[in-house]
Structures are given as C-alpha cells and as structure tokens.
Amino acid sequence: MLIEKDREPTPLPANGSHRCTDAEQAAVREQMQRMLSHSLFRNSKRYPPLFRFVVESALQGQPDTIKERQLGVQVFGREPDYDTNLDPIVRYTAGEVRKRIAQYYHLPEHQGELRIDLPSGSYVPEFHFPAAAPSPAAPIAQSASRAPSRPRWVLAAAVGVAAIAAFLLWQKPWQSRNALDRFWSPVFSSNDPVSICLAPPVLVSSFSSPDGAAQRGSQESNDASARRTGTIGYGDAITLARITGLLQAKGRQYRIGDQSYLDLADLKLGPVVLIGGFNNAWTVRLTNRLRFVLALDRSTATSWIRDNQHPDRRDWSIHWTAAGPEVAEDYAVVSRFFDPNTGRLVVAIAGITGIGTLAAGEFVTDNRLAEALANRAPANWERRNFQVVLATRVIQGSDAMPRIVATHFW
C-alpha cells in the first residue's frame, strides 16, 4: 500500500463501524468518477463495475459484500456456489484495476488528488485525502552575497538527463535479448496472467475418413488409450510442459483450461496461448482469417496448411486412411498476432497432427530455432504480427528438427 507522507490516510475498519463524513463521501465519489472517465478505465466494460462496486460498498460501510465470492455474484453474475478457483475472474479483474490505479496516479497531473487505493490481497478500498496546503512562509530577503538561482533550462536539462539515465538502467540496451526473448516479448511485457487454451481432455475426432472411420485429427495414432483415460494427446502435453516451463522461468503467471472452459471473456483477460490444431476450436476460430490456416477436404481425406494467397496449392498436406494418417512429413503453423476479437496478443501453436504440434512447441521454446526465424525476419519483427509454417520429418512416430518453409509478417 502506498501512503504518501504528506497525506493523512482515512482508514475504513473492516467491521464497517466508521463511515466517511458526507463531505468525504462526496469527494470520494467525485474522484471515482474522475478516474472512471479517464482512458485507463472508460474503454473497458469489466473494470469500472468492480471499481465502482467496491468503492460504493466501502462508503456505505458494507465490508461483507467486498469479498471475492460476493463480488463474483454481484458484479459478474456468477452463481452463488461457483468455484472461485476454477473461475478467478474477480482476482484477475482486481489485479487489472490495481494496475490502472497505479498508472493513473503515476501521471504528474493526478499526484495531488484524493487517492483511492485497492491494496494487494484485499478488495476493500482505502481513501487517502490530501493534507491541507501549508500556509506560505514569509519571504526571506536574498543576501547580496548569495549566488543567483540557476536558470530554469539548467534544471530542466538535469531532469531530462536523469530520466534518460533511469530509462537506460531499466531497459539495459547493452544486454541484447536473444531471439526467443524477442519472440515472446509481447507476452513477457504484459502484467496480466497468460491463458493457455488446450483441446478438450476427452479426445474426439476432428474429422472422419470418407468411409466414416474416425481419425485422430491432431493426435498421434496411439491416442485411443488417451481417449479411454481422458488425458490429452502426447504432442499437446509435451508442448504444454514446454510453454509452462518457459513462463515459470520468466516469472509469469498463467492458467490452463480447455476450449470448453475458456470463453471469449476469459481470453480477454491477458495474452493467450493456443495449443493444438483441428482439435482446438479456439485455434480454428481465431486464426481463420490469417494467411496460413488449417484446411480439410473430406472428399479426398486430405488435411493441409492452406496459403490463402495461393489457395489452389497443397504443398503442405497429409492424406488420411482408415488406419490413420500417412505421415512421412508433418506440418505446423505458428501464429503470433494481435486478435481484434479479444483485444489481446495470441500465440497459436497448431500442427496438422500431434507430431506437428510437438515440432511447433519445440520451435517456440528453443532459442536455436527462434534464431532461424530472426535471421530471415524483417527489422523490428518482434513488434509485428507474423506466421511461420514449419515442416518436420516423422521418424518412428516422433518429430525431427523442425525447419521453416514459409513466413509472413504484417
């Protein structure tokens, strides 16, 4: 909690025995409206309702309503018995509100205003009223021997130099980032938890062969046992382990859910990583307007990665039979793009089969492979949307080192 020395905090006891005076309540509400009208809040449909509810509940001395479950029910319309561990919408939204409050008061023009804080670990806001301005002291005559004050431009230059030095110390441009860090930089730079979306654990065929025999979509040929046990496919599982290991190494928070659990509102909470191809409905939905997409022709039992700029070509394709895919070489597409539907960065890791997904998961977590992308990418590629088409030889049911066969940056 930040309490500035020149401000006198007005605590709100948890038992609600004290309320702000009418004048203080009016001042808090005015400040709340001022904050909600700022661009940090006004462009969101999720953050203002939570902020408004906790402030009003605190002003009315109703701390019992400022708890996670009650907020989920009252603000977000959840059922009274919903599982807060499986649906952490209140925690994530409160974290985002705290970040926006900090950004608001960091701006110089707001630093002298009444402060509304939402302390970490609590949903009960605190109000900090500015102290009365001290009366101006009597002017002191300047001695004739006193040196004249420095010109304002000298002070401004000193402040500018200090700001540049602080920025350089923070960014450390002399410490070059490797290609893998550059690939993931938009994800690592976000303070929001990463949502990792998988295919459903109960593996159902994404399509069937012409004779009606179920095929294994984006899973390997031994996934029949996985269907019986309710686990996810090998390629998706290994990729999930690689991604979570990378996020943990970078200290990033994440949550894991399958496509039936994560809805569009959940995907708006932070960066999104999609694992799986045909078996992951969110991968199909969010990438269907990009240049490289997964495609299926049931009449010929063929699946491929379609280039929408050359839709008649099927260079990266796999044929399916009743026994499974005829795979000597598998293909995958890795997409990293800003999605207008969620307003978030999306990383989609999608193979035609699970072996392709396995190769793509290796590609996005191995710096040697990321360097291969950086070597053929345009300047500042880490700030752009892009897709990478990969090919990998299938050797005894596993993937060889993936190689890049096509890229697209925009």
Residue-averaged pLDDT, rounded?
78
Strand-residue proportion: 15-25%
Unreliable runs: 1-17, 133-150, 152-157, 167-176, 202-229
User: What is the number of helices?
Assistant: 13
Largest sheet: 8 strands, mixed
Structural class: alpha+beta
Oligomer: single chain
| Cα shape | elongated
N- to C-terminal distance: 42 Å
Q: Strand tally, please?
A: 15
Return Rg in Å: 28 Å
Whole-number tally of structural domains: 2
Q: Considering DSSP H and I runs of 4 or more, what fraction of the residues is helical? A: 25-40%
The run of helices and strands is EHHHHHEEHHEHHEHEHEEEEEEHHEEE
What is the element layout, followed by pairings?
Layout: E1 7-10, H1 22-36, H2 39-42, H3 47-59, H4 68-76, H5 89-106, E2 115-117, E3 126-130, H6 152-171, H7 179-188, E4 194-198, H8 224-229, H9 234-249, E5 254-258, H10 264-267, E6 272-275, H11 281-287, E7 292-297, E8 302-307, E9 317-321, E10 324-326, E11 329-339, E12 344-351, H12 354-363, H13 367-375, E13 386-395, E14 398-399, E15 403-409
Parallel strand pairs: 4-5, 4-6, 6-12
Antiparallel strand pairs: 1-3, 2-3, 7-8, 8-9, 9-10, 11-12, 11-13, 13-14, 13-15
Helix pairs in contact: 1-3, 3-5, 7-13, 9-12
Verbal overview:
This protein is of the alpha+beta class. The protein folds into 2 domains: 7-130, no CATH class; 179-409, no CATH class. The protein is built from 13 helices and 15 strands. Strands 4, 5, 6, 11, 12, 13, 14 and 15 form an 8-stranded mixed β-sheet that branches. A 4-stranded antiparallel β-sheet has the order 7-8-9-10, with no helix packed on it. The protein has a 3-stranded antiparallel β-sheet with strand order 1-3-2. Helix 1 (22-36) packs antiparallel against helix 3 and helix 3 packs across helix 5. The longest helix is centred in the middle third of the chain and has 20 residues, at 152-171. The two termini are 42 Å apart.
